Inverse folding.
């Protein structure tokens, strides 16, 4: 069953069309990767899903209900959380304060903190003093504070050391194992395909390939363009 469905989505910035005729789906409990080069339209797609960027054409549905054209607060309330590229933490606030900013309501805050601190126990440290990998873990934790059914992640491994990349992907696997559905935009294609159940390849704003993990791992195009094989 599809949790998220995009149908012929077109979006962009002023006179620039960044994505055109993008259709994809994410099933309940899946990890789906959206891969492609810089400027392919991956971030634009996530921004369109969360209501940060209005659609020019097409529709976006969550559980069969249209969410395009709705405010980002409505999208979050419906169960989608977005972990943006670059973490975007508040460096002078503590880890706990940054996490609490991600909570949808007071009732879920305590339970959310308990589950997040099980993954990332750095409650009192200032976010600006964390390493890049620790900041990314904090950003993921902030997204989880909204208790999402669908977690959108934009380049979570960007700029991180290999040991932290491994930790991030192990954490994402653990999050998915608890039942959270994930749509992952990621530059590390090998890692993304190892984690994902299915994937889409986005080039020049269009989906050019899609399929289960094994099929894309064996695709000659993916091997040459993204895996260096």
């Amino acid at each position: 069953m599809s949790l998220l469905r995009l149908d012929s989505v077109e979006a962009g910035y002023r006179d620039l069309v960044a994505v055109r005729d993008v259709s994809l789906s994410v099933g309940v409990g899946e990890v789906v990767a959206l891969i492609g080069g810089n400027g392919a339209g991956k971030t634009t797609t996530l921004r369109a899903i969360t209501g940060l960027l209005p659609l020019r054409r097409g529709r976006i549905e969550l559980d069969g209900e249209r969410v395009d054209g709705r405010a980002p607060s409505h999208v979050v309330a419906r169960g989608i959380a977005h972990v943006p590229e670059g973490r975007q933490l508040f460096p002078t606030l503590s880890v706990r304060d940054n996490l609490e900013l991600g909570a949808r309501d007071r009732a879920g805050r305590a339970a959310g903190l308990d589950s997040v601190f099980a993954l990332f126990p750095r409650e009192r440290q200032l976010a600006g003093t964390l390493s890049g990998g620790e900041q990314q873990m904090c950003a993921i934790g902030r997204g989880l504070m909204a208790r999402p059914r669908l977690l959108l992640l934009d380049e979570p491994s960007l700029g991180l050391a290999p040991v932290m990349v491994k930790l991030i992907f192990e954490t994402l696997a653990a999050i998915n194992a608890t039942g959270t559905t994930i749509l992952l935009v990621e530059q590390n294609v090998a890692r993304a395909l190892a984690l994902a159940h299915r994937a889409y390849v986005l080039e020049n704003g269009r989906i050019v390939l899609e399929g289960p993990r094994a099929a894309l791992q064996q695709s000659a195009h993916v091997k040459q363009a993204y895996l260096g094989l």
Q: What stands out?
A: The longest helix spans residues 162-177. Strands lie at 2-13, 16-27, 31-35, 57-62, 65-66, 80-83, 150-154, 181-185, 198-203, 206-212.
